Amino acid sequence: MTKIKTFSRSLEELTPKAIVEELNKYIVGQDEAKKAVAIALRNRWRRQRLPEHIRDEVAPKNIMMIGPTGVGKTEIARRIAQLIKAPFVKVEATKFTEIGYVGRDVESMVRELVEVSYQMVKSEKMQAVRETARRLAEERILDYLVPPQLTFGSREVKDIGKRESLRERLKSGELDEKVIEVEMQDRSAPFIGIAAPPGLEDIEEQLKNLLQNAIPGNKRRRKLKVKEALSIFEQEEAEKLIDLEEVSREAIYRAENFGIIFIDEIDKIAVKTPSAGPSVSREGVQRDLLPIVEGSTVRTKYGPVKTDHILFISAGAFHMSKPSDLIPELQGRFPIRVELKPLTKEDLMRILTEPRNAIVKQYIELMKTEGVELEFTDDAIEEIANISILANEKLENIGARRLYTVVEKLMEDISFNAPDLKGQRIIIDAKFVRAKLENIVKDVDLSRYIL
Asked: Is the pTM of this model over 0.85?
């Protein structure tokens, strides 16, 4: 199958070392966790190269990440999904309840994954036919600009010369602001409000789709700028050119074989000792989660989806509990355990400056848009890291996320006054950082609200 070859090629280039190198561009430290996910990702490529009778027997080695908040657990999972353009969803274990309780059921995470996969595949297919759709959309616009003339026998005759002249102006953008009246299909279905029982959250969407197909849409005329009409027509023509059934099939295939579900806060549903009350529900969530992770079939609006080869990555701080507090069957379904280390001052200094999306780099670029040149000295970076460590110790330890609150407060006045500072060069050093933040850090009550 073409889709297997496509994914295999993209994964073939991603050796475990190459995956870790890519992760290093965005995430500081946590080498053990990076190594574990790199192996898990590579095993997906290896599995595709196995004979079919063995391939189905090779299950993904699910991973449990253990570590405090803000050390990179979610970011690692999200980045590996982006590397291979795999469907990815993040869910929180605390949002689910066992069957019989009011709330989301665990199967909804699989339906969400398939929806992400569907939109991803549909977007790729539409991009592939974009040029053809654009040409067809241009023809529709030209039909409004130069309507065909009817002759004897009801034959339509088009003024070729005038159309070609306008086509060039249309392509060059010369007609973008011209307002035309176009006829459009109004296929909006009536609002349907349904209190769906657990497991049937998609029933409203399914009924809407059914009504849209069963009830022909009314045509209505709208006045639009040529640029807007062209964009709408291009979207409509692209949808006509792709096979939505094929999109559904490929979306299911991609979700089943390459999908990644990140289950955060799994430690919150761990139960130490059986007791009445909320713990019953938490243990029930574990038991409902078990067949999904083990491998079962979930019904979605795009068709049944097998979860046997979906990669599950769970994460939790495990401050109040430990992995062994989970039910034994679920523990066994996460055979790879990696512990992520708390961040040191040196880690925070690197996080501020090294990653491609480092917060200091972001602010330098943001201020450039206002014509302001911003520079952070080395001692300023160290002071920001010191203040973040201190705030994490005095308040709640939220890891690297503290850097965002600290830098945001530090930059508050500069960001506010930036339009009036055009052409200036601002140097942020340790003295500037202390003057702005020292008093806030000393006052614990104040820092609870600000940092």
From this structure: no
